[in-house]
Amino acid sequence: MNETRLEKLRRQLDGVNQALLTMLSERAEIALEIGAEKERQGVPKFDPVREQLMLKDLVAQNKGPFDDDTIRHLFKQIFQASLKIQQEDHGKHLLVSRKRQERNTVVALGDVEIGGVKPVMIAGPCSVESYEQVREVAAHLKASGITVMRGGAFKPRTSPYDFQGLGIEGLRILKEVADEFGLKTISEIVDPAHIELACEYIDVIQIGARNMQNFELLKAAGDVRKPILLKRGLAATIDEFLHAAEYIVSRGNTQVMLIERGIRTYEKATRNTLDISAVPILKQESHLPVLVDVTHSTGRKDILAPCAKAALAAGADGVMVEVHPNPATALSDAAQQLDFSEFTIFYDDVLRSGLMK
Ligand SMILES: O=C(O)C(=O)C[C@]1(C(=O)O)C=C[C@@H](O)C=C1
User: Fold this and answer.
1) Whose CA is nearest to atom 1 of ligand 1?
2) Which GO terms describe its molecular function (predicted)?
3) In this structure, which CATH number among 3.20.20.70, 3.40.50.1000, 3.30.565.10, 3.40.718.10 belongs to the domain 107-353?
4) Which of 121, 154, 204, 261 could form a disulfide with 296 if both were Cys (CB 3.0 to 4.6 A apart)?
Protein backbone atom coordinates (compact mmCIF):
# COMPACT_ATOMS: atom_id res chain seq x y z
CA MET A 1 0.00 0.00 0.00
CA ASN A 2 1.34 3.42 -0.98
CA GLU A 3 2.02 5.81 1.83
CA THR A 4 0.19 9.11 1.33
CA ARG A 5 2.09 12.36 1.73
CA LEU A 6 0.27 13.07 4.98
CA GLU A 7 1.22 9.66 6.40
CA LYS A 8 4.82 10.16 5.41
CA LEU A 9 5.01 13.55 7.07
CA ARG A 10 3.40 12.17 10.20
CA ARG A 11 5.93 9.35 10.29
CA GLN A 12 8.69 11.92 10.09
CA LEU A 13 7.08 13.83 12.93
CA ASP A 14 6.85 10.64 15.03
CA GLY A 15 10.59 10.23 14.55
CA VAL A 16 11.21 13.79 15.72
CA ASN A 17 8.92 13.20 18.71
CA GLN A 18 11.01 10.16 19.66
CA ALA A 19 14.22 12.18 19.38
CA LEU A 20 12.71 15.05 21.39
CA LEU A 21 11.56 12.65 24.11
CA THR A 22 15.02 11.09 24.34
CA MET A 23 16.61 14.52 24.58
CA LEU A 24 14.05 15.81 27.10
CA SER A 25 14.65 12.77 29.31
CA GLU A 26 18.40 13.25 29.01
CA ARG A 27 17.96 16.93 29.90
CA ALA A 28 15.81 16.00 32.91
CA GLU A 29 18.48 13.58 34.18
CA ILE A 30 21.06 16.38 34.03
CA ALA A 31 18.64 18.80 35.76
CA LEU A 32 18.19 16.21 38.55
CA GLU A 33 21.95 16.04 39.03
CA ILE A 34 22.13 19.84 39.11
CA GLY A 35 19.32 19.79 41.70
CA ALA A 36 21.22 17.31 43.90
CA GLU A 37 24.39 19.43 43.62
CA LYS A 38 22.45 22.59 44.57
CA GLU A 39 21.02 20.69 47.53
CA ARG A 40 24.54 19.84 48.71
CA GLN A 41 25.63 23.46 48.31
CA GLY A 42 22.45 24.74 49.98
CA VAL A 43 21.58 27.08 47.09
CA PRO A 44 18.03 27.61 45.79
CA LYS A 45 16.81 25.35 43.00
CA PHE A 46 15.07 28.17 41.14
CA ASP A 47 17.58 30.31 39.28
CA PRO A 48 15.82 33.03 37.25
CA VAL A 49 19.13 34.58 36.10
CA ARG A 50 20.29 31.29 34.59
CA GLU A 51 16.88 30.85 32.95
CA GLN A 52 17.03 34.34 31.43
CA LEU A 53 20.53 33.70 30.02
CA MET A 54 19.41 30.42 28.44
CA LEU A 55 16.35 32.08 26.91
CA LYS A 56 18.48 34.92 25.57
CA ASP A 57 20.87 32.45 23.90
CA LEU A 58 18.03 30.39 22.46
CA VAL A 59 16.23 33.41 21.05
CA ALA A 60 19.48 34.64 19.51
CA GLN A 61 19.81 31.32 17.69
CA ASN A 62 16.17 31.08 16.68
CA LYS A 63 15.78 30.93 12.90
CA GLY A 64 12.01 30.32 12.94
CA PRO A 65 9.43 29.29 11.99
CA PHE A 66 8.46 29.66 15.66
CA ASP A 67 8.60 33.28 16.78
CA ASP A 68 10.79 34.31 19.73
CA ASP A 69 7.92 34.48 22.20
CA THR A 70 6.87 30.94 21.37
CA ILE A 71 10.43 29.70 21.85
CA ARG A 72 10.60 31.50 25.20
CA HIS A 73 7.28 30.00 26.26
CA LEU A 74 8.22 26.44 25.24
CA PHE A 75 11.57 26.52 27.00
CA LYS A 76 10.11 28.16 30.09
CA GLN A 77 7.78 25.14 30.30
CA ILE A 78 10.80 22.84 30.15
CA PHE A 79 12.60 24.80 32.89
CA GLN A 80 9.53 24.66 35.09
CA ALA A 81 9.15 20.92 34.60
CA SER A 82 12.84 20.45 35.46
CA LEU A 83 12.49 22.58 38.58
CA LYS A 84 9.49 20.52 39.65
CA ILE A 85 11.33 17.20 39.46
CA GLN A 86 14.34 18.73 41.21
CA GLN A 87 12.08 19.69 44.09
CA GLU A 88 10.17 16.39 44.12
CA ASP A 89 13.37 14.40 44.00
CA HIS A 90 14.60 16.20 47.06
CA GLY A 91 11.31 15.89 48.98
CA LYS A 92 11.41 12.14 48.40
CA HIS A 93 14.45 11.86 50.58
CA LEU A 94 13.01 13.63 53.63
CA LEU A 95 11.89 11.34 56.43
CA VAL A 96 9.07 13.74 57.31
CA SER A 97 7.72 13.59 53.76
CA ARG A 98 4.49 11.83 52.82
CA LYS A 99 6.44 10.28 49.99
CA ARG A 100 8.50 8.39 52.55
CA GLN A 101 5.56 7.47 54.78
CA GLU A 102 2.02 7.46 53.49
CA ARG A 103 0.39 6.76 56.89
CA ASN A 104 -0.16 9.64 59.36
CA THR A 105 2.16 9.82 62.35
CA VAL A 106 0.02 9.70 65.46
CA VAL A 107 1.44 11.06 68.71
CA ALA A 108 -0.12 9.38 71.74
CA LEU A 109 -0.28 11.30 75.02
CA GLY A 110 -1.93 8.79 77.30
CA ASP A 111 -5.44 8.36 75.93
CA VAL A 112 -5.18 11.39 73.65
CA GLU A 113 -4.03 10.84 70.11
CA ILE A 114 -2.75 13.79 68.09
CA GLY A 115 -2.84 13.23 64.35
CA GLY A 116 -5.46 10.49 64.74
CA VAL A 117 -9.13 10.72 63.88
CA LYS A 118 -10.17 13.38 66.38
CA PRO A 119 -8.68 16.88 66.55
CA VAL A 120 -7.45 18.05 69.93
CA MET A 121 -7.82 21.37 71.78
CA ILE A 122 -4.74 22.40 73.74
CA ALA A 123 -5.07 25.30 76.17
CA GLY A 124 -3.26 26.95 79.02
CA PRO A 125 -1.50 30.09 80.15
CA CYS A 126 1.20 31.79 78.14
CA SER A 127 3.53 31.61 81.15
CA VAL A 128 3.59 29.56 84.32
CA GLU A 129 3.45 32.34 86.93
CA SER A 130 2.65 30.49 90.14
CA TYR A 131 1.33 27.19 91.47
CA GLU A 132 -2.06 28.79 92.24
CA GLN A 133 -2.39 30.28 88.75
CA VAL A 134 -1.63 26.96 87.00
CA ARG A 135 -3.91 25.08 89.39
CA GLU A 136 -6.81 27.43 88.65
CA VAL A 137 -6.33 27.00 84.90
CA ALA A 138 -5.99 23.22 85.21
CA ALA A 139 -9.20 22.96 87.20
CA HIS A 140 -11.10 24.98 84.60
CA LEU A 141 -9.63 23.03 81.68
CA LYS A 142 -10.39 19.71 83.36
CA ALA A 143 -13.98 20.79 83.93
CA SER A 144 -14.22 21.79 80.26
CA GLY A 145 -12.98 18.41 79.06
CA ILE A 146 -9.52 19.61 77.97
CA THR A 147 -6.76 17.09 78.63
CA VAL A 148 -3.62 18.75 77.28
CA MET A 149 -2.37 21.92 78.96
CA ARG A 150 0.33 24.30 77.77
CA GLY A 151 2.36 26.62 79.99
CA GLY A 152 5.64 28.41 79.37
CA ALA A 153 8.44 28.09 81.92
CA PHE A 154 11.27 29.38 79.72
CA LYS A 155 10.08 32.46 77.90
CA PRO A 156 12.16 33.83 75.05
CA ARG A 157 10.96 37.44 75.03
CA THR A 158 11.69 40.24 72.62
CA SER A 159 12.94 42.45 75.45
CA PRO A 160 15.45 41.16 78.04
CA TYR A 161 13.58 43.27 80.62
CA ASP A 162 10.34 41.30 80.17
CA PHE A 163 9.42 38.33 82.37
CA GLN A 164 11.68 35.45 81.35
CA GLY A 165 9.72 32.65 82.99
CA LEU A 166 10.20 30.57 86.15
CA GLY A 167 12.51 28.07 84.46
CA ILE A 168 12.83 24.59 85.99
CA GLU A 169 10.64 25.71 88.91
CA GLY A 170 7.89 26.38 86.35
CA LEU A 171 8.24 22.85 84.97
CA ARG A 172 7.94 21.48 88.53
CA ILE A 173 4.72 23.42 89.04
CA LEU A 174 3.33 22.14 85.75
CA LYS A 175 4.08 18.55 86.71
CA GLU A 176 2.62 18.80 90.15
CA VAL A 177 -0.63 20.31 88.88
CA ALA A 178 -0.84 18.01 85.84
CA ASP A 179 -0.43 14.96 88.06
CA GLU A 180 -3.18 16.19 90.36
CA PHE A 181 -5.66 16.74 87.51
CA GLY A 182 -4.53 13.96 85.19
CA LEU A 183 -3.54 16.38 82.40
CA LYS A 184 -0.76 16.13 79.82
CA THR A 185 1.59 19.10 79.54
CA ILE A 186 3.47 21.06 76.89
CA SER A 187 6.22 23.55 77.66
CA GLU A 188 8.92 25.28 75.68
CA ILE A 189 12.59 24.46 76.16
CA VAL A 190 15.20 26.90 74.85
CA ASP A 191 18.50 25.34 75.89
CA PRO A 192 19.73 21.98 74.56
CA ALA A 193 21.16 21.26 78.03
CA HIS A 194 17.63 21.33 79.50
CA ILE A 195 16.02 18.86 77.09
CA GLU A 196 16.80 15.68 79.04
CA LEU A 197 15.83 17.20 82.35
CA ALA A 198 12.57 18.51 80.88
CA CYS A 199 11.59 14.94 79.93
CA GLU A 200 11.13 14.21 83.65
CA TYR A 201 8.56 16.99 84.06
CA ILE A 202 6.57 17.44 80.88
CA ASP A 203 4.88 15.27 78.24
CA VAL A 204 5.67 17.37 75.16
CA ILE A 205 8.71 19.56 74.58
CA GLN A 206 7.91 22.65 72.58
CA ILE A 207 10.51 24.26 70.35
CA GLY A 208 9.45 27.84 69.87
CA ALA A 209 9.22 29.93 66.72
CA ARG A 210 12.40 31.84 67.51
CA ASN A 211 14.32 28.60 67.88
CA MET A 212 12.95 26.76 64.86
CA GLN A 213 16.37 26.86 63.26
CA ASN A 214 18.41 26.49 66.43
CA PHE A 215 20.02 23.37 65.07
CA GLU A 216 21.74 22.31 68.29
CA LEU A 217 18.39 22.45 70.07
CA LEU A 218 16.75 20.47 67.26
CA LYS A 219 19.48 17.83 67.48
CA ALA A 220 19.07 17.56 71.25
CA ALA A 221 15.31 17.17 70.73
CA GLY A 222 16.03 14.45 68.20
CA ASP A 223 18.14 12.54 70.70
CA VAL A 224 15.36 12.06 73.29
CA ARG A 225 12.25 9.93 72.93
CA LYS A 226 9.64 12.50 73.94
CA PRO A 227 7.04 14.10 71.67
CA ILE A 228 8.19 17.44 70.27
CA LEU A 229 5.95 20.31 69.24
CA LEU A 230 7.84 22.33 66.67
CA LYS A 231 6.62 25.86 65.97
CA ARG A 232 7.01 27.46 62.58
CA GLY A 233 9.57 30.28 62.61
CA LEU A 234 8.42 33.89 62.31
CA ALA A 235 9.66 34.10 58.74
CA ALA A 236 10.19 30.46 57.87
CA THR A 237 9.04 28.97 54.60
CA ILE A 238 7.19 25.67 54.68
CA ASP A 239 10.27 24.01 53.24
CA GLU A 240 12.48 25.39 56.04
CA PHE A 241 9.87 24.30 58.58
CA LEU A 242 9.90 20.73 57.25
CA HIS A 243 13.70 20.67 57.21
CA ALA A 244 13.75 21.76 60.85
CA ALA A 245 11.44 18.83 61.66
CA GLU A 246 13.76 16.59 59.65
CA TYR A 247 16.61 17.50 62.02
CA ILE A 248 14.63 15.94 64.88
CA VAL A 249 13.25 12.92 63.02
CA SER A 250 16.59 12.10 61.39
CA ARG A 251 18.06 11.50 64.86
CA GLY A 252 15.42 8.91 65.64
CA ASN A 253 12.74 10.89 67.44
CA THR A 254 9.74 10.33 65.17
CA GLN A 255 7.20 11.86 67.57
CA VAL A 256 7.16 15.34 66.06
CA MET A 257 4.17 17.66 65.66
CA LEU A 258 4.16 20.82 63.57
CA ILE A 259 2.41 23.98 64.64
CA GLU A 260 1.60 26.96 62.44
CA ARG A 261 1.72 30.13 64.59
CA GLY A 262 1.49 32.89 62.02
CA ILE A 263 4.20 34.41 59.92
CA ARG A 264 5.50 37.94 59.67
CA THR A 265 3.99 39.98 56.87
CA TYR A 266 3.23 43.67 56.32
CA GLU A 267 -0.28 43.21 57.76
CA LYS A 268 -0.81 44.98 61.08
CA ALA A 269 -4.42 44.02 61.80
CA THR A 270 -3.17 40.82 63.44
CA ARG A 271 -0.02 40.16 65.46
CA ASN A 272 1.17 37.75 62.76
CA THR A 273 -0.52 36.49 59.61
CA LEU A 274 -2.10 33.10 60.14
CA ASP A 275 -1.01 31.13 57.09
CA ILE A 276 -4.02 28.87 56.85
CA SER A 277 -2.84 27.45 53.53
CA ALA A 278 0.18 26.02 55.36
CA VAL A 279 -2.18 23.53 57.03
CA PRO A 280 -3.31 21.58 53.93
CA ILE A 281 0.14 21.97 52.37
CA LEU A 282 1.86 20.52 55.44
CA LYS A 283 -0.72 17.73 55.64
CA GLN A 284 -0.10 16.96 51.99
CA GLU A 285 3.70 17.18 52.16
CA SER A 286 4.24 15.52 55.50
CA HIS A 287 2.78 12.71 57.59
CA LEU A 288 3.36 14.62 60.87
CA PRO A 289 0.40 16.03 62.86
CA VAL A 290 -0.31 19.69 62.13
CA LEU A 291 -1.70 22.09 64.73
CA VAL A 292 -2.55 25.80 64.70
CA ASP A 293 -1.79 28.28 67.47
CA VAL A 294 -4.64 30.74 67.12
CA THR A 295 -3.46 33.00 69.94
CA HIS A 296 0.05 33.81 68.69
CA SER A 297 -0.94 33.94 65.05
CA THR A 298 -3.75 36.45 65.48
CA GLY A 299 -2.94 38.14 68.80
CA ARG A 300 -6.64 39.03 68.88
CA LYS A 301 -9.30 37.48 71.07
CA ASP A 302 -12.19 38.56 68.82
CA ILE A 303 -11.26 36.30 65.90
CA LEU A 304 -10.00 33.21 67.72
CA ALA A 305 -13.10 31.10 67.11
CA PRO A 306 -13.38 31.69 63.33
CA CYS A 307 -9.63 31.12 62.96
CA ALA A 308 -9.80 27.90 64.99
CA LYS A 309 -12.69 26.70 62.83
CA ALA A 310 -10.82 27.65 59.66
CA ALA A 311 -7.80 25.68 60.91
CA LEU A 312 -9.90 22.60 61.61
CA ALA A 313 -11.77 22.92 58.32
CA ALA A 314 -8.39 23.11 56.56
CA GLY A 315 -7.45 19.78 58.14
CA ALA A 316 -5.56 20.73 61.30
CA ASP A 317 -5.16 17.98 63.90
CA GLY A 318 -5.63 20.45 66.70
CA VAL A 319 -5.72 24.00 67.92
CA MET A 320 -3.77 25.70 70.69
CA VAL A 321 -5.11 28.68 72.61
CA GLU A 322 -4.00 30.67 75.65
CA VAL A 323 -6.11 30.84 78.79
CA HIS A 324 -5.37 32.76 81.99
CA PRO A 325 -7.41 33.23 85.19
CA ASN A 326 -6.94 36.99 84.99
CA PRO A 327 -5.38 38.03 81.67
CA ALA A 328 -5.09 41.70 82.68
CA THR A 329 -2.51 40.77 85.31
CA ALA A 330 -0.65 38.18 83.20
CA LEU A 331 3.13 38.48 83.17
CA SER A 332 3.22 37.90 79.41
CA ASP A 333 0.79 38.36 76.51
CA ALA A 334 -1.80 40.06 78.74
CA ALA A 335 -3.85 41.38 75.82
CA GLN A 336 -4.36 38.14 73.97
CA GLN A 337 -5.12 35.48 76.58
CA LEU A 338 -8.72 34.40 77.21
CA ASP A 339 -10.23 34.45 80.68
CA PHE A 340 -12.27 31.42 81.74
CA SER A 341 -15.64 32.63 80.54
CA GLU A 342 -14.18 33.79 77.23
CA PHE A 343 -12.57 30.39 76.86
CA THR A 344 -15.88 28.64 77.50
CA ILE A 345 -17.61 30.75 74.84
CA PHE A 346 -14.73 30.12 72.41
CA TYR A 347 -14.64 26.37 73.00
CA ASP A 348 -18.45 26.01 72.79
CA ASP A 349 -18.40 27.88 69.49
CA VAL A 350 -15.72 25.56 68.07
CA LEU A 351 -17.48 22.46 69.40
CA ARG A 352 -20.81 23.57 67.91
CA SER A 353 -19.18 23.72 64.49
CA GLY A 354 -18.86 19.93 64.61
CA LEU A 355 -15.27 20.22 63.38
CA MET A 356 -13.76 18.66 66.52
CA LYS A 357 -15.45 15.26 65.98
O1 LIG B 1 20.85 25.35 35.66
C2 LIG B 1 20.33 25.21 36.74
O3 LIG B 1 20.73 25.81 37.75
C4 LIG B 1 19.17 24.29 36.89
O5 LIG B 1 18.74 24.05 37.98
C6 LIG B 1 18.52 23.77 35.69
C7 LIG B 1 17.29 24.57 35.27
C8 LIG B 1 16.91 24.07 33.85
O9 LIG B 1 16.09 23.20 33.73
O10 LIG B 1 17.54 24.57 32.91
C11 LIG B 1 16.20 24.32 36.20
C12 LIG B 1 15.77 25.24 37.13
C13 LIG B 1 16.40 26.55 37.32
O14 LIG B 1 15.47 27.56 37.60
C15 LIG B 1 17.26 26.91 36.20
C16 LIG B 1 17.62 26.00 35.25
Assistant:
1) 50
2) aldehyde-lyase activity; chorismate mutase activity; transferase activity
3) 3.20.20.70
4) 261
